[in-house]
From TrEMBL:
It comes from Xanthoceras sorbifolium. In the N-terminal section; belongs to the glycosyltransferase 20 family. The chain holds residues 148 to 654 of 1029 of the full protein. This is alpha,alpha-trehalose-phosphate synthase (UDP-forming).
Length: 507
């Protein structure tokens, strides 16, 4: 029992996210194999040394028996993870339904899947009920292990209802919430039937952070990053609260009946050192050599994305086709490597996207390929970390053309691996990263394939001194705005907010 264990010397940080940073595979009645999945959030939190961090979340598997649940809980405890057990029906309604069919497309301005629109509208209420129920289940687990003085950091659109559930348990609990996706214009948010409930719940948190490459929205309190001054997502959130709830927007956030919730923009980053160090490893160097030989005499263009509607993969490939069409002399001098990790493979909309991409790639390779070469290499799979670093390092032009993206870490990873090559980044203006890497990248509207095709030509022909200047700008940003700094800033802001709130209450 954690409550009886005595206080650890470091302050405890409870990180609550839909998925735990491990994947669990059952090996027997009471045995589990766990593998840590390293992602942006995990490496960010590894860097926050002053906290004793624990994770609370779903392990991604349905475990209905007591023996299995007990064994998994025990195995996860060694990794400082605490599971929330969700049954199949809840996962179907909460995760597949409300999170991925409603909030994800809506927050990315894509609306609901067209053919499912009516069906989704009908099942909306039951999905939202499941969403609230699931969030309550997360809150129950947090509440059970919470100790006075802990900081609770809730993540993403899956858990918008959680801050309120936690505050109902204990109004003194320090609760922050961070959104990894864009927060859309209030005109989009107001179409959501549960628009008010979600906003009210999030406002129960003490600090709301929006993933963005923006500087301190709370500049009057403490400027984080004074060289950038845009704050679109935070502004959209405040507008939604003022227009939908009638609350007051202030320079610090949102105020209602004397209670202020601070709304801030916290740009996420990557663990840039990890990428830079990896490039020195012999196996990565070997891989780089192989790739250079394989593509000798051709410029390498690269796309690395999850295969999701928001990433704009078909649009990107069509722009590349247009470039080849208009520039026959480049047809045998450039190759596009598109690495796309499949996600949500059971959803028809995503299956359709996969077929669409395959169809376009096949057509273009048939049209411009020769007996020995093709212009596009498309892989439907994930690459391991070292292979990914090598690929970033040999790339001349990276194409990040998301239709919308909270930030986009691929653009950061590419820049981190380009110290030698000083390659060019073509970046969608609709990715949060455009706010921070915009001065070094070529910004494009991904819907305008004529513009993207022209940018490909500009990037391929860019003189070395311009590449160098652009790269330096981005490299400076990526190496000085790291994931570790992002996490440390959020948590220390959350602590400060509480101190301020307590002071205000005492006055
Ligand atoms: P994602 O939509 O997953 O994240 P992104 O920020 O690009 O998008 O991160 C993807 C991660 O997966 C990167 O670390 C990348 O290296 C890795 N990855 C992608 N394709 C891969 C492949 N084929 N093989 C191996 N690795 C691959 C969400 C939001 C983003 C936001 C992040 C973090 O949608 O906008 O930047 O969270 O807040």
């Amino acid at each position: 029992n954690e409550r009886q264990e005595g206080r650890p010397s470091k302050q405890r940080l409870l990180v609550v996210a839909n998925r735990l940073p491990v994947s669990a595979v059952r090996r027997g009645v009471d045995s589990w194999q766990l593998e840590i999945s390293v992602g942006g959030l995990v490496s960010a939190l590894l860097g926050v040394k002053e906290f004793d961090a624990r994770w609370i979340g779903w392990a991604g598997v349905n475990v209905s028996d007591d023996i299995g649940q007990r064994a998994l809980t025990k195995a996860l405890a060694e990794k400082r993870c605490i599971p929330v057990f969700l049954d199949e029906e809840i996962v179907h309604q909460y995760y597949n339904g409300y999170c991925n069919n409603v909030l994800w497309p809506l927050f990315h301005y894509l609306g609901l899947p067209q053919e499912d629109r009516l069906a989704t509208t009908r099942s909306f209420q039951s999905q939202f009920d499941a969403y609230k129920k699931a969030n309550q289940m997360f809150a129950d687990v947090v509440n059970k292990i919470y100790q006075e003085g802990d900081v609770v950091w809730c993540h993403d659109y899956h858990l918008m209802f959680l801050p309120q559930c936690l505050k109902r348990y204990n109004s003194n609990m320090k609760v922050g919430w961070f959104l990894h996706t864009p927060f859309p214009s209030s005109e989009i948010h107001r179409t959501l039937p549960s628009r008010s409930e979600l906003l009210r719940s999030v406002l129960a948190a003490d600090l709301v952070g929006i993933c963005d490459s923006k500087s301190g929205y709370t500049a009057s309190v403490r400027p984080f990053n004074p060289s950038f001054h845009t704050y679109d997502y935070a502004r959209h959130f405040v507008s939604a609260c003022t227009r939908i709830l009638g609350f007051e927007g202030t320079p610090e956030g949102v105020e209602n009946q004397g209670k202020l919730t601070r709304v801030a923009a916290f740009p996420i980053g990557i663990d840039s050192e990890r990428f830079i160090r990896a490039l020195e490893l012999p196996q990565v160097q070997d891989h780089i050599k192989e790739l250079k030989e394989r593509f000798a005499g051709r410029k390498v263009m690269l796309g690395v994305d999850r295969l999701d509607m928001i990433k704009g993969i078909p649009q990107k490939i069509l722009a590349f086709e247009k470039y080849l069409e208009e520039n026959p002399n480049w047809r045998d001098k450039v190759v596009l490597l598109q690495i796309a990790v499949p996600t949500r493979t059971d959803v028809p909309e995503y299956q359709k996207l996969t077929s669409q991409v395959h169809e376009i790639v096949g057509r273009i390779n048939g049209r411009f390929g020769t007996l020995t070469t093709v212009p596009i290499h498309h892989l439907d799979r994930s690459l391991d970390f070292h292979a990914l670093c090598a690929l970033y390092a040999v790339t001349d032009v990276a194409l990040v053309t998301s239709l919308r993206d909270g930030m986009n870490l691929v653009s950061y990873e590419f820049v981190a691996c380009q110290a030698d090559k000083k390659g060019v980044l073509i970046l969608s203006e609709f990715a949060g990263a455009a706010q921070s890497l915009g001065a070094g990248a070529i910004l494009v509207n991904p819907w305008n394939i004529t513009e993207v095709a022209a940018s490909i030509g500009y990037a391929l022909n860019m003189p070395a001194d311009e590449r160098e200047k652009r790269h330096q700008h981005n490299f400076m940003h990526v190496t000085s705005h790291t994931s570790q700094e992002w996490a440390a800033t959020f948590v220390s802001e959350l602590n400060d907010t509480i101190v301020e709130a307590q002071l205000r209450t005492r006055q």
